[in-house]
Amino acid sequence: MTANPPTVVEASRTIAADAAVIFELIAVRHNHVVEFEEGRCIAWRPSEPGGEPPGHLWRWTLQPVGDGTLVTHSR
After folding, report:
1. Domain with 51 in it
2. Which of 1-5, 12-16, 27-31, 66-70 has the lowest mean pLDDT?
3. I need a labelling partner for 22 at 20 to 30 A (CA). Which of 2, 42, 47, 64 fits?
4. What global pTM score does this model have?
């Protein structure tokens, strides 16, 4: 079996702000785990430190299939 090379999806946009300001917005998050099933599923909602999650959900699920695992990422 030949492995497929990893695919990276990327999008870029220029934002009228200093890099330090943008970095603070993306680097000071707390993740609240809201779903967890050992070896099968994990999902979390990010928030500002000390704040309530605004509703964005990031989920990874793993499902055995044949001789491998179906990995699904949803957000």
Report:
1. 30-74
2. 1-5
3. 42
4. 0.64
